[in-house]
Amino acid sequence: MAQEKRGVAMVSGASSGFGRRIAQVLCRQGYSVVALARRADRLKLLADEDTTGAILPLVADVRDRDGLALALDELPAEFRDISVLVNNAGLSRGFGPLQSGSHDSWREMIDTNITGLLNLSGLVLPRLASRGSGHVVNIGSIAANYPYMGGNVYAATKAFVHQLSLNMRVDLQGTGVRVSCVAPGMAKTEFAKVRYGGDEECADALYRDIEPLTPDDVAEAVAWCLAQPARVNVNMIELMPVEQHFGLGFAGSP
Ligand code: NDP
Ligand code: 8X3
């Protein structure tokens, strides 16, 4: 039976982890997916794995507003009518206390997790509002809700994402556009490796005593938000590994 066509979804941070899996799950459900990230080789692999041509790699940096605007203007006609935006691109740098933190790391997190998300939303939201329907899913974090040692700036950027999700929803009232926030806890992706500056051993050690969430768990939560009847707005989903307690995140070095 032919797959029902569901429209175009744009997924940021689609070159690894949650974003990659979200792109695959949405594609499987009949969406055409614009897969956005900086690493062209990773995006090409993702697109090549799908034989239907429904995944379009879009090499862009969410921090570069002009570059994003150009890339969106140049989307092929069949990927232009975006109805779903998944703001997933994000990162964390460092794990020490604020008093010994690095300004460059703070800036990178703020530029990516806050300004980057605003850059992409600012360009896509008018398209959603003018078409009279659509859905934005922002990826937050339990770090925004439960402080842990060393979470500081990363956690605060995610608190911004949670609050902005609520305010997006208010501002989009009457447009038919829904807004959800999915806030995962510890999940095994490239996130920890990035946070520990590329140290894979450190990153792996983090999950030694805990069974972390998988990209699939998060992708299914995103897909569930989208699949609800049009009258339902899922405001927030929070999910954690069973073994993760409220003070345990990427606390300190393993
Ligand atoms: P990954 O490191 O595996 O993926 C992060 C993605 O973001 C990559 O595709 C990366 O692509 C992309 N990205 C980073 N910076 C930019 C940028 N400037 N422009 C475009 N894309 C960018 O981590 P996760 O999948 O775990 O992280 C996805 C989201 O989930 C993040 O927002 C993270 O904060 C959040 N999160 C993660 C949790 C976890 O425990 N893993 C838990 C809760 C939330 P590229 O480098 O190719 O640009
Ligand atoms: C990152 C996951 O639980 O370590 O958002 O904060 S956690």
Automatic annotation (TrEMBL):
Signal peptide: none annotated. Transmembrane segments: none annotated. One of its GO terms (molecular function) is oxidoreductase activity, acting on the CH-OH group of donors, NAD or NADP as acceptor. Keywords: Oxidoreductase. InterPro entries: NAD(P)-bd_dom_sf (IPR036291), Sc_DH/Rdtase_CS (IPR020904), SDR_fam (IPR002347). It holds the Pfam family adh_short. Belongs to the short-chain dehydrogenases/reductases (SDR) family. This is NAD(P)-dependent oxidoreductase. It comes from Streptomyces subrutilus.
